[in-house]
Amino acid sequence: MLRCCAFLAALILVGFATFEAHADRRVAFVIGNSQYRNIPALKNPDTDAKDVSKTFRLAGFDVFVAKDVTKLQFEEQFRNYLAAADGADLAVVYYSGHGFQIGGVNFLIPVDASLKQAADIEVQAIKLDDMLEQLRSKSKIQIIILDACRNNPFPRKDYWLRDQLITASGTGLAEVKSSQNALIAFATGPDAIAYDGTGNASPFSSAFSRRALAPNQEIRAVMAAVRRDVVAATKGKQVPWENSSLIDEVVLMHRANKPALPPVLERVVPSGIGPVALDLPTPVTVDGSAVTVSFETLPALAGLVLDGKPVAEGDQIAGNDLPRLLIDLPKASDTQEQVETLAYATHDEWGGVSQGILVLRIKGGAEGQQSAASLKAEQKQLMVERGLHITGAAEAIQKKSKLSVPVGVGPVPLNLDFPTGDPGISLKLASYPATGTLSLPDRTLSPDSTILANEIDKLRYEPQIGAAAPLELGFQIRAGKASKPATVKLSPSVDPCDRAAGAPLDLQGVAPGRGAIEACEAAVKAYPNVVRFRYELGRALLAAGKVDEARKAIQEAADKGHARAVFELAYMAASATSTAADVTKANGLYAQAADQGDPAAMAAWGRALFNGVGVEPNPRKGLDLLLKSAAMGHISAMNDLALIFQEGRNGVPADPARALAFLKASMERQEVYSMSILGLAGRRFQTAAVCKPKVITKIRVIRAPAPPMITPPPVKPVPPLIEPAPWRGGSSGDRPSPSRQSSTDDSTPDSDTPDTPDSPATGEPPGTDASTTGFGGISTVRGG
Predict the structure, then answer these.
(1) What is the pLDDT of residue 341?
(2) What is the biggest distance separating any 2 CA atoms in the chain, rounded to whole angstroms?
(3) Would you place residue 683 in the very low, low, confident or very high pLDDT band (cuts 50, 70, 90)?
(4) Which helix (H) or strand (E) holds 456?
(5) Distance of alpha carbon 697 from alpha carbon 711, whole angstroms
(6) At what angle do helices 599-611 and 635-647 cross, to 10 degrees?
(7) pTM of this prediction?
(8) C-alpha to C-alpha distance for 455 and 453, rounded to whole angstroms
(9) Three-state secondary structure call for residue 503
(10) Pick from 44, 37, 34: nearest CA to 66
(11) What's the sign of the alpha-carbon dihedral 710, 716, 719, 721?
């Protein structure tokens, strides 16, 4: 029977360099917006998104797909994607839909945008620069591909950008300057218009989907080929363009550098009985592509035969024919055993080569006759054994039934306990999970992949953040012409620590939740390299009043790069948690976390800069940070902006309509904020006095009185306008209990507009998420 000859393999392969391979983390976010509600629909983006997402799946990406998304839906799905992109080698965004520029700033348009008011662009559209900045803080390499270069389809042409009212001018999208190791690709050149085309997909997406499948092609070569195709298809009317600052090579469609093949096998062969089957296994490629076999060294005493025809040294045969190869050894005059070798090489269509060695132990004389007598029995037994192996393997996988796979901890071994390592058995992926990625330690698998029996126990799955539904993984287990199907259910699960102490809008998190220190201690022990759990343990400890232990856990998470942990340390410094308040230290930490892309830190640092709290005032930069935070769905930032625009501050002109736009946006997101922002389907909370935006027409700035109190404890002073941590434990989970009375009022604004005082119940400053008055004095009602 065939078996691996480990000792001989070591002798033959010694001196060859070995390389430790690994599977790169690559994520893609594909958006297709067709069915616009307030402007004409687009014909092709839905098909574009379907084709492009399939392309990235075939290339082994973790692909997030969003079709016909509203602004709120985009925020949630983009945050899921950012959580997956954290630490990724390559992050890609592909957008097909309406997009245009205003004053040289590019915006992508969700399907529910109306853009009737000057302020609507800030709360209804997606600023491309903000997306790119978030990706820069998360991933090593960024690629953004835009099939969105179109004219402004809305009647209104003037919009607010920061502190200026800008009139839209120009066509298409504006040029974007990429940072180091990024590529921005457009369906057409700057200030030009892209066409939908006459088919079901745009000329640009059709060309990209086709060209991106070229194996082992660097992205700039791919885009050059796309450009040629689009120019030809549009007769020169559309010329795709890109701006690249890449310093690393980027290959979308990796192919294996060699077919999978056992390097050394051994076979006992009798002489003088005619052609004998060698039973060599079929060489396998991970993508199922064709393989050829060439013969480099033949046994001196033997000839090879395939389907009755001789095979000479240097000849090539198809890889699928290798199991039918026969060897014909003349009768040996010597009764002693002789050793010969057969050396062959397998070649895939992409240039990959593997070497194979077959060691032949030739038996002659009476021993050869005895070997011949047992050969047929051996071959029959081998067929029976492989049939049993296939059946047993299929049954072993089916017994797994449903596997729970934790979300957000990296690739998780599936431990399928495959019962055989027979080199003649392979597994073709018959059904790839609809979301997430399958991988081996040395490569990411695509939906067309095939793996060997001795690799199956190393198979890993990484669920997609935000996925909740069970998924199916199917195999076709094969040996020669025999095959058996097998399936297993994969169920993504959120760790109890995430459910217990996850923070809203934590872009390195998975899900927000409520309380247990024990759950997070268990998670830290089980996944010591997942920094998120250390931060969540710190949150749980802080809620339990164990401040010193909490500070230690949060500091450990911050030291390992967790942005929300840095924000938490800033809050602790600002709010005098166990130490004297240090606004300067807090601002430094807020700035650090904001640079890492944390929305809460952007709001806090922006607020400090805008108002000059503990830092030299910089209203323009502060306003920009608040706008970026609001664009990520941060309610406190929206509320701050509404107050700024209502009153007019620090050179920013008053504009009640602009204030109202942010107030409406804040109210639309209140429930979303307290749900599962970055994890599985959100748990809905009971809401009170839900206000529909359409009934809000005016804003009234009021004084919110503190509720009656019995012997209130002393409260340490808190620096004003410092962002509070969004959760402090207790029965209300991620929402602190209301500490001030609130109301709504549609009457005209009061002439007297005093600032709302700090709440003696909490010691927290006005304008924070800890009160029912959503922001500094502007009255809103929060869900309970």
Answers:
(1) 86
(2) 117
(3) very low
(4) none
(5) 40
(6) 30
(7) 0.70
(8) 5
(9) coil
(10) 34
(11) negative
